[in-house]
Amino acid sequence: MKILTLNCGSSSVKYALLDMPDKVKLCHGIVDRVTASESFIKHFKLGMKESTVSYRECRTHNIAIDLVLDYLTNPDVGGVRNLSEIRAVGHRVVHGGEKFKECTLIDEEVIKEIEECSSLAPLHNPANLAGIWAIMKLMPNTQQFAVFDTAFFTTMPPHVFTYGVPHEWYEKYHIRKYGFHGTSHRYVSKRAALLLKKEMGKINMITLHIGNGVSVTAVKHGIAYDHSMGFTPLEGAVMGTRCGDIDPAIPLYVMKREALRCEEMEDILNRRSGLLGITGKYSDRREILKAMETGDERAKLSFEIECYRLKKYIGAYAAAMGGVDAIILTAGAGENSFLHRSSIFKGLEFMGVKIDHEKNKQAAGGEDEMEISTEDSPVKVLVIPTDEELALAENVWSLIERRSEKVPLNQEHP
User: How far apart, in whole angstroms, are the C-alpha atoms of residue 66 and residue 59?
Assistant: First the structure.
């Protein structure tokens, strides 16, 4: 069964075509700079050594997804002869509120719920919806499924997800901690348990997703117990353009001093803060590391702030769970930057974290899963590349199998 996965961001569309349940990734790629100028597609096909890259203006997600479908059906670089071979499309949806606790078949009611959650994830849900609407237009007879980032965190207990604000806010507006990057955290925690040959229910882990967005999860006995992000993806660690944890009085103070509207402050905290706000120039950690080499003090400061905050989360979550057996790093800097990893774990020897510095330097991204702790380290540290596309496809496959017990698994979707 062939399943297409889509991860639509505000300016990109990541996609993959997988043959399930064999987990074979037939094609994958990204359309970048969607809604901007000079947009392009970078497409990979199974068995081809190099990617195919071409530039095409994609002013809307509809155009970008149409381009993806052209590539998937291309006789030379595609994975299917025609779109009818694709059984289902699985979408990453960032915010599902309290209602959605697992992969869900998309219908009008689900779309309405996703729309209502858009104000809680303004950088993500509208783009996720754009992808859903595009498939409705381009592949109207194909079932679509939503896999919600927030679903993994529905196991958090009330004393963890409840804020110290008037309780009627929760009752009226569902204000609580939700959690994000759930597909990634679920995937790498399961992979870690497998690599360590441990049962999920008998291990405590801390997973760090360090991309442009950054989040940390405490996985206690195999389920999400706490998470750094909150009501929206703005809370938590310092991120590429998001502020993370700050005194909530700061925005109120600045809004009064500079007569800013709510929408203006929301834009500042989401798009003009974090590493970009500290450096004044950079949100990309690769650029920050290069600037540090030239003596840029604000770049150095941003690096130190980020690593310090992540170190604090590790310590806090180890205490909250009564100990930790493994720490997993994934996504951009988590997979690729040994300098970030070195700084984050420096000084944590007291809690049983011992890093093998040669292994740490060797773990430079790609598809390799690698343990970077020493053999005698009580707490194991692993670098595991995330595979959200596979995780999405697995969720969709599982739901289709449960819903279609009487339908042959190789039956093509009409």
Answer: 12
